[in-house]
Amino acid sequence: MLAESLVLAGVIFVLGTLGVIVRRNVIIMFLCIELQLNAVNLTFVAFSRFVGIEGQLFVFFVMTVAAAEAAVGLAIIISIFRHYETVNVNHFNLLKW
Amino acid sequence: MTEVLFFIFAAVAVGGAVGVVMSRSPVASLLFTVATLASTAGIYVLLEAHFLAAVQIIVYAGAVMVLFLFVIMLLNLGHEYRRDIRGNVALIMGFAVTGGIGGLLARQVGSGSAGLETNLGAGDAIDAALREHGAVGAIAQPLFTDYVVPFELTGILLLVAIVGALVLAK
């Protein structure tokens, strides 16, 4: 079941990457980043079965960082939305050359 | 039985991930994400990580996703059904990049998976710790001894995130 878990994590990670690249709605891009984090967590749990319980501790820390990232990222999205009135990343071009 | 459950959970997880990328409405995307997270929690249970499965449901699928839902409702994006997939060039580039990553991952798993099933020494140690301390104790034991400094740093990180979110969204 370990190899299958790694394959599943790879598939979810690739789908998350595709979503980040392809979508333009910034909230859906953010959800896809959560998918990628989730795939990495699954890899950690699968490997903890034959490396040690430290893998599960790392998942714990990754979840904390993901929660902090979601809070700060959504605050940034709200403050950008107040300025541009949209969540389409094509309109966020202040730093584009 | 375990195998069948694993494949059911894996199918729901992959289907949910496809739904996140494909669906037009942000609310539908969010619900697909919840499906993926919940079925990943099921796979955690199958991998004997019971505490993480509970945390995944409570913190991830519960708290973080509800935070996302609050923001979607606050910004009034619930009825946005326009297509927001990027143009052809970016689409081809996206598939090229993800195909590259997927190919590399497939090669790595394919070449290394032969030795995975045989080397299960740590699995027995984890099972012993689970029997001795319970699902929470097995994680808490190393967390509050060997990894207590990262744990406290995580607390500081959460404090900084709370203050940062308040300042940014004010």
Task: Output the radius of gyration of chain B.
Answer: 20 Å
SSE order of chain B in H/E notation? HHHHHH
By DSSP, the count of extended strands of chain A is: 0
Q: Which stretches of chain A are poorly predicted, pLDDT < 50 over at least 5 residues?
A: none
Class by alpha and beta content of chain A: mainly alpha
CATH architecture of the largest domain in chain B: Up-down Bundle
The CATH topology annotation of chain A reads as Helix Hairpins
Order of helices and strands of chain A: HHH
CATH class of chain A: Mainly Alpha
Overall average residue pLDDT of chain B: 86
The CATH topology label of the largest domain in chain B is Four Helix Bundle (Hemerythrin (Met), subunit A)
Number of domains of chain B: 3
The N- to C-terminal Cα distance of chain A equals 48 Å
Shape of chain B, please? globular
Largest sheet of chain A, in brief, is: none
What oligomeric arrangement do these chains adopt?
heterodimer
Q: Gap between N and C termini of chain B, in Å? A: 51 Å
Write the layout of secondary structure elements.
The complex is a heterodimer of chains A (about 100) and B (about 170).
Chain A: H1 2-22, H2 26-51, H3 54-84
Chain B: H1 2-22, H2 26-46, H3 50-74, H4 88-112, H5 121-143, H6 148-169
Structure notes:
The complex is a heterodimer of chains A (97) and B (170). Chain A has 97 residues and is mainly alpha-helical. Chain A has one domain (2-90): Helix Hairpins (Orthogonal Bundle). Chain A is 80% helix and 0% strand. Chain A has three helices and no strands. In chain A, helix 1 runs antiparallel to helix 2 (26-51). The longest helix of chain A has 31 residues, at 54-84. The radius of gyration of chain A is 16 Å and the shape is elongated. In chain A, 57% of the residues are buried. The mean pLDDT of chain A is 89. Chain B is mainly alpha-helical. Chain B folds into three domains: 1-79, NADH-ubiquinone/plastoquinone oxidoreductase chain 6, subunit NuoJ (Four Helix Bundle (Hemerythrin (Met), subunit A), Up-down Bundle); 83-110; 123-170, no CATH class. Chain B is built from six helices and no strands. In chain B, helix 1 runs antiparallel to helix 2 (26-46) and helix 2 runs antiparallel to helix 3. In chain B, 22% of the residues are buried. The model of chain B has no long low-confidence stretch (mean pLDDT 86). At the A-B interface, helix 1, helix 2 and helix 3 of A face helix 1, helix 2, helix 3, helix 4 and helix 5 of B.
